[in-house]
Every structure is written in structure tokens, then in C-alpha cells.
Design a protein that fits this description.
There is one protein chain. Helix content is 34%, strand content 22%. The protein is built from 6 helices and 7 strands. Strand 1 and strand 2 form a beta hairpin. The N terminus is likely disordered. The protein is an alpha/beta fold. The chain has 2 domains: 40 residues; 140 residues, Carbonic anhydrase (Beta-carbonic Anhydrase, Chain A, 3-Layer(aba) Sandwich). The strands form 2 sheets. A 5-stranded mixed β-sheet has the order 4-3-5-6-7, covered by helices on one side. A two-stranded antiparallel sheet has the order 1-2. It comes from Pyronema omphalodes (strain CBS 100304) (Pyronema confluens).
Length: 189
């Protein structure tokens, strides 16, 4: 078993790898997919078009505690869901432009959440963990992991970024904070 940990000023992260856990996850993934493919997909779902029916995009965090379908009432075929660390609009830009320009989505909803890991580190913390002295030392790393210290401010900055971008339809852009403990969302912008 391989175990490593990383500690910074606000959080302790522990990462554990084992072959048996990896094998169990893979087996569950494969078995669940077999079941889904044979019993869950309806004829109507098979006929869904590529563009989302309700013409909107949700940009949210990859955090495993968030289930956008349940939390926001998104059914299959309704919307595009773009997930990344921190629910970053900058990180989602490529997918968002494709969603809007090629697939016709019009509304963008940015959803960040309480107790987000992106609040717990800086770029320097992560570069130190990776053993990189500077952002230019390793060309394959992005220059910014996009951490933030203030949740409300991060939502507002993402909305400003989207509204200012020339390739984003910015008429219908809004931002929310999702509370991982209560399941409620509060509009910020």
C-alpha cells in the first residue's frame, strides 16, 4: 500500500492507493455500466439530440458531494454540465464556447460550493507538493491552478470573466453558491 499526505495551513489531505481498491472500483464501474446499458436506457433517451433541450450550461465543481442532476433538477438531455476543480469558468471556457457556438446553449449558470478544496491551497502550495520550483520549471503544468480564498468573490469574478469574453453569450449568466451540508443554493449574481 502506498500512502502519502500533504498538509497546508488550512487542511490535511491524505491520499491512499491500493491495488485492491482500484480493482474494486473498476469492477463496480464495469458492472454498473452493464446494468445501466441493459435496463435503464429508454427508447426516448436513445433518441435525445446532441444539443441540450433546455439550452443551458451548468459550470460546477468536480467535488463528489455534488450531484447536479439531483441538486438542480437536471434530467438527461436538459443541459450541459461542465465540471472541474472549483467550478472555474476559466477552466471551462473551451467546453462552454463549444456548447454555445456549436450546440446552441444560451444560459450559463456557475455554481461554486461551500467547503471547496480550492479554498484550502495556493498555487505555491501545489507547486511545492509537485516538487516544482516555479511555474516555468515544468512546461506541462498549467500556470495557474485557479485556487481562491473568497467564495462570493470567486463567483463574481467568474461571472465578470464570462460577461467580458467576446465568444461567450453573456445575456443570461448567473452565479450561485451551493451549500454541501444543506443542499441549498444561494444566488450571488
Amino acid at each position: 500500500m502506498e500512502t502519502s499526505s500533504w498538509r497546508n495551513s488550512t487542511s490535511i489531505y491524505i491520499h491512499t492507493k491500493t491495488m485492491s481498491l482500484t480493482s474494486a472500483n473498476t469492477e463496480q464501474f464495469e458492472n454498473s455500466n452493464k446494468k445501466y446499458a441493459t435496463t435503464i436506457i429508454t427508447d426516448a433517451e436513445k433518441k435525445l439530440s446532441i444539443p441540450p433541450a433546455k439550452k443551458y450550461v451548468i459550470i460546477t465543481c468536480m467535488d463528489a458531494r455534488i450531484d447536479p442532476a439531483k441538486a438542480f433538477g437536471v434530467t438527461l438531455g436538459d443541459a450541459h454540465i461542465i465540471r472541474n476543480a472549483g467550478g472555474s469558468a476559466r477552466d471551462a471556457l473551451r467546453s462552454l464556447i463549444i456548447s454555445q457556438q456549436l450546440l446552441g446553449t444560451e444560459q450559463v449558470i456557475v455554481v461554486k460550493h461551500t467547503k471547496c478544496g480550492m479554498l484550502a491551497f495556493t498555487n505555491e502550495d501545489l507547486f511545492e507538493k509537485l516538487g516544482v520550483q516555479s511555474q516555468t520549471e515544468e512546461k506541462t503544468l498549467p500556470c495557474d491552478f485557479l485556487p481562491f480564498k473568497d467564495l462570493n468573490k470567486a463567483v463574481k469574478e467568474d461571472i465578470e470573466f464570462l460577461k467580458a469574453h467576446k465568444f461567450v453569450k453573456s445575456d443570461a449568466v448567473s452565479g450561485y453558491i451551493y451549500d454541501v451540508e444543506s443542499g441549498r443554493s444561494e444566488k450571488v449574481v
